[in-house]
Specification:
The complex is a heterodimer. Chain A has no helices and eleven strands. By secondary structure, chain A is an all-beta fold. In chain A, the strands form two sheets. In chain A, strands 2, 4, 5, 6, 9, 10 and 11 form a seven-stranded mixed beta sheet that branches. By secondary structure, chain B is mainly beta. Chain B is built from no helices and twelve strands. The chains are: A mainly beta, B mainly beta.
Amino acid sequence: GAGVSQSPRYKVAKRGQDVALRCDPISGHVSLFWYQQALGQGPEFLTYFQNEAQLDKSGLPSDRFFAERPEGSVSTLKIQRTQQEDSAVYLCASSTHRGVSTEAFFGQGTRLTVV
Amino acid sequence: GNSVTQMEGPVTLSEEAFLTINCTYTATGYPSLFWYVQYPGEGLQLLLKATKADDKGSNKGFEATYRKETTSFHLEKGSVQVSDSAVYFCALGGRGFQKLVFGTGTRLLVSP
Protein backbone atom coordinates (compact mmCIF):
# COMPACT_ATOMS: atom_id res chain seq x y z
CA GLY A 1 0.00 0.00 0.00
CA ALA A 2 0.91 3.65 -0.17
CA GLY A 3 1.40 4.10 3.54
CA VAL A 4 1.62 2.35 6.88
CA SER A 5 -1.68 0.69 7.69
CA GLN A 6 -2.82 -0.23 11.19
CA SER A 7 -5.83 -2.19 12.26
CA PRO A 8 -8.14 -1.97 13.99
CA ARG A 9 -8.37 1.83 14.24
CA TYR A 10 -10.28 1.55 17.49
CA LYS A 11 -10.43 -1.25 20.03
CA VAL A 12 -12.38 -1.43 23.26
CA ALA A 13 -11.29 -4.24 25.55
CA LYS A 14 -12.55 -5.37 28.91
CA ARG A 15 -9.93 -5.45 31.61
CA GLY A 16 -8.19 -8.80 31.54
CA GLN A 17 -8.86 -9.42 27.86
CA ASP A 18 -6.05 -10.11 25.38
CA VAL A 19 -5.73 -7.87 22.30
CA ALA A 20 -3.73 -8.01 19.08
CA LEU A 21 -2.88 -4.92 17.05
CA ARG A 22 -1.70 -5.22 13.47
CA CYS A 23 0.70 -3.11 11.44
CA ASP A 24 1.28 -3.33 7.69
CA PRO A 25 4.41 -1.31 6.92
CA ILE A 26 5.31 0.25 3.62
CA SER A 27 6.43 -2.50 1.28
CA GLY A 28 10.18 -3.05 1.38
CA HIS A 29 10.76 -1.08 4.56
CA VAL A 30 13.39 -2.81 6.66
CA SER A 31 12.79 -1.11 9.99
CA LEU A 32 9.58 -1.17 11.98
CA PHE A 33 8.85 0.63 15.25
CA TRP A 34 6.02 0.49 17.76
CA TYR A 35 5.24 3.50 19.94
CA GLN A 36 2.70 4.10 22.69
CA GLN A 37 1.06 7.52 22.92
CA ALA A 38 -0.90 8.28 26.07
CA LEU A 39 -3.47 11.06 26.02
CA GLY A 40 -1.77 14.45 25.87
CA GLN A 41 1.71 12.97 25.66
CA GLY A 42 4.29 12.36 23.00
CA PRO A 43 4.90 8.91 21.55
CA GLU A 44 7.00 6.63 23.75
CA PHE A 45 9.17 3.94 22.15
CA LEU A 46 8.13 0.33 22.71
CA THR A 47 10.12 -1.87 20.35
CA TYR A 48 12.10 -2.02 17.09
CA PHE A 49 12.46 -4.63 14.37
CA GLN A 50 15.00 -4.85 11.61
CA ASN A 51 13.40 -7.28 9.17
CA GLU A 52 12.21 -10.15 11.36
CA ALA A 53 14.72 -9.57 14.14
CA GLN A 54 13.53 -7.72 17.24
CA LEU A 55 16.65 -5.71 18.05
CA ASP A 56 15.29 -3.55 20.84
CA LYS A 57 12.37 -4.22 23.15
CA SER A 58 13.55 -2.02 25.98
CA GLY A 59 10.40 0.11 25.91
CA LEU A 60 7.88 -2.67 26.46
CA PRO A 61 6.32 -1.79 29.83
CA SER A 62 5.78 -5.31 31.10
CA ASP A 63 5.91 -8.96 30.11
CA ARG A 64 2.25 -8.66 29.15
CA PHE A 65 3.40 -6.88 25.99
CA PHE A 66 4.73 -8.97 23.13
CA ALA A 67 5.54 -8.05 19.52
CA GLU A 68 6.46 -10.12 16.51
CA ARG A 69 7.29 -9.71 12.85
CA PRO A 70 7.81 -13.31 11.71
CA GLU A 71 8.35 -12.72 7.98
CA GLY A 72 9.89 -9.31 8.16
CA SER A 73 6.79 -7.52 6.93
CA VAL A 74 3.53 -7.41 8.91
CA SER A 75 3.93 -6.95 12.66
CA THR A 76 1.59 -7.70 15.54
CA LEU A 77 1.67 -6.14 18.98
CA LYS A 78 -0.08 -8.32 21.52
CA ILE A 79 -1.14 -7.23 24.98
CA GLN A 80 -2.20 -9.90 27.41
CA ARG A 81 -4.53 -9.39 30.38
CA THR A 82 -5.12 -5.73 29.50
CA GLN A 83 -5.17 -3.17 32.28
CA GLN A 84 -6.67 0.32 32.33
CA GLU A 85 -3.22 1.89 32.17
CA ASP A 86 -2.76 0.23 28.76
CA SER A 87 -5.33 2.64 27.29
CA ALA A 88 -3.45 4.67 24.69
CA VAL A 89 -2.91 5.09 20.99
CA TYR A 90 -0.44 2.55 19.61
CA LEU A 91 1.54 3.85 16.67
CA CYS A 92 3.49 1.85 14.14
CA ALA A 93 6.19 3.37 11.93
CA SER A 94 8.40 1.99 9.20
CA SER A 95 11.57 3.14 7.54
CA THR A 96 13.89 2.10 4.75
CA HIS A 97 16.90 2.72 6.95
CA ARG A 98 18.60 0.16 9.14
CA GLY A 99 19.03 1.27 12.71
CA VAL A 100 18.79 4.93 11.85
CA SER A 101 15.75 6.74 13.15
CA THR A 102 15.04 9.11 10.33
CA GLU A 103 12.39 9.46 7.70
CA ALA A 104 10.07 7.16 9.61
CA PHE A 105 6.52 6.96 8.23
CA PHE A 106 3.75 6.56 10.78
CA GLY A 107 0.40 4.86 10.57
CA GLN A 108 -2.78 6.43 11.93
CA GLY A 109 -2.58 4.36 15.07
CA THR A 110 -4.88 2.07 17.00
CA ARG A 111 -6.73 3.70 19.88
CA LEU A 112 -7.08 1.12 22.65
CA THR A 113 -9.54 1.76 25.46
CA VAL A 114 -9.59 -0.69 28.35
CA VAL A 115 -12.79 -0.59 30.38
CA GLY B 1 19.78 10.04 28.53
CA ASN B 2 18.31 11.57 25.42
CA SER B 3 15.30 13.83 25.88
CA VAL B 4 13.28 16.59 24.24
CA THR B 5 11.47 19.42 26.00
CA GLN B 6 8.76 21.45 24.31
CA MET B 7 6.78 24.45 25.41
CA GLU B 8 3.40 23.57 26.80
CA GLY B 9 0.25 24.35 24.90
CA PRO B 10 -2.20 25.07 23.74
CA VAL B 11 -0.85 27.94 21.69
CA THR B 12 -3.77 30.04 20.51
CA LEU B 13 -3.24 32.48 17.64
CA SER B 14 -5.25 34.47 15.16
CA GLU B 15 -4.81 33.82 11.47
CA GLU B 16 -1.72 35.51 9.98
CA ALA B 17 0.02 35.78 13.37
CA PHE B 18 3.66 34.79 13.86
CA LEU B 19 4.29 31.39 15.42
CA THR B 20 7.12 30.16 17.61
CA ILE B 21 7.09 26.79 19.36
CA ASN B 22 10.16 26.24 21.51
CA CYS B 23 12.06 22.98 21.59
CA THR B 24 15.26 22.10 23.44
CA TYR B 25 17.03 18.79 23.60
CA THR B 26 19.56 16.78 25.57
CA ALA B 27 21.49 14.13 23.71
CA THR B 28 24.64 12.07 23.78
CA GLY B 29 26.26 12.34 20.39
CA TYR B 30 25.10 14.27 17.35
CA PRO B 31 21.41 13.80 16.73
CA SER B 32 19.27 14.83 13.82
CA LEU B 33 16.29 16.95 14.83
CA PHE B 34 12.76 16.71 13.54
CA TRP B 35 9.38 18.36 13.74
CA TYR B 36 6.39 16.09 13.23
CA VAL B 37 2.80 17.28 12.90
CA GLN B 38 -0.39 15.42 13.82
CA TYR B 39 -3.56 16.78 12.27
CA PRO B 40 -6.88 15.77 13.87
CA GLY B 41 -7.68 12.14 13.13
CA GLU B 42 -4.46 11.56 11.23
CA GLY B 43 -1.09 9.96 11.90
CA LEU B 44 2.19 11.70 12.56
CA GLN B 45 3.73 13.32 9.51
CA LEU B 46 7.28 14.55 9.15
CA LEU B 47 7.15 18.34 8.75
CA LEU B 48 10.85 19.17 8.54
CA LYS B 49 14.25 18.03 9.69
CA ALA B 50 17.85 19.14 10.17
CA THR B 51 20.76 16.73 10.34
CA LYS B 52 23.59 18.87 11.69
CA ALA B 53 24.34 22.09 13.53
CA ASP B 54 23.31 25.32 11.78
CA ASP B 55 21.17 23.45 9.25
CA LYS B 56 17.76 24.98 8.62
CA GLY B 57 14.83 22.72 7.87
CA SER B 58 11.85 24.20 6.06
CA ASN B 59 8.53 23.06 4.66
CA LYS B 60 5.08 24.59 4.05
CA GLY B 61 6.27 27.97 5.37
CA PHE B 62 7.59 26.46 8.62
CA GLU B 63 11.27 26.76 9.53
CA ALA B 64 13.55 25.54 12.30
CA THR B 65 17.30 26.00 12.75
CA TYR B 66 19.48 23.45 14.54
CA ARG B 67 21.33 25.47 17.22
CA LYS B 68 23.95 23.35 18.89
CA GLU B 69 25.15 26.13 21.20
CA THR B 70 21.70 26.47 22.76
CA THR B 71 20.61 22.85 22.09
CA SER B 72 17.46 24.18 20.49
CA PHE B 73 15.31 23.61 17.41
CA HIS B 74 12.49 26.15 17.64
CA LEU B 75 9.70 25.96 15.08
CA GLU B 76 8.62 29.22 13.41
CA LYS B 77 6.13 30.36 10.81
CA GLY B 78 5.61 33.93 9.72
CA SER B 79 1.87 33.79 9.08
CA VAL B 80 -0.24 30.91 10.38
CA GLN B 81 -3.44 29.67 8.79
CA VAL B 82 -6.47 27.97 10.30
CA SER B 83 -5.37 24.80 8.52
CA ASP B 84 -2.16 24.78 10.59
CA SER B 85 -4.18 23.85 13.68
CA ALA B 86 -2.64 20.58 14.85
CA VAL B 87 -0.31 19.09 17.44
CA TYR B 88 3.39 19.60 16.77
CA PHE B 89 6.05 17.24 18.10
CA CYS B 90 9.77 17.90 18.30
CA ALA B 91 11.95 14.79 18.13
CA LEU B 92 15.55 13.69 17.96
CA GLY B 93 17.11 10.71 16.26
CA GLY B 94 19.20 10.00 13.20
CA ARG B 95 22.47 8.18 12.65
CA GLY B 96 23.62 6.55 15.87
CA PHE B 97 20.15 6.79 17.39
CA GLN B 98 18.13 3.67 16.81
CA LYS B 99 14.84 5.23 17.84
CA LEU B 100 13.16 8.61 17.71
CA VAL B 101 12.71 10.39 21.03
CA PHE B 102 9.72 12.74 21.11
CA GLY B 103 8.69 15.73 23.15
CA THR B 104 5.24 15.87 24.70
CA GLY B 105 3.74 17.87 21.83
CA THR B 106 2.32 21.39 21.54
CA ARG B 107 -1.22 21.96 20.38
CA LEU B 108 -1.69 24.92 18.05
CA LEU B 109 -5.12 26.46 17.63
CA VAL B 110 -5.53 29.09 14.92
CA SER B 111 -8.75 31.08 14.77
CA PRO B 112 -10.05 33.03 11.75
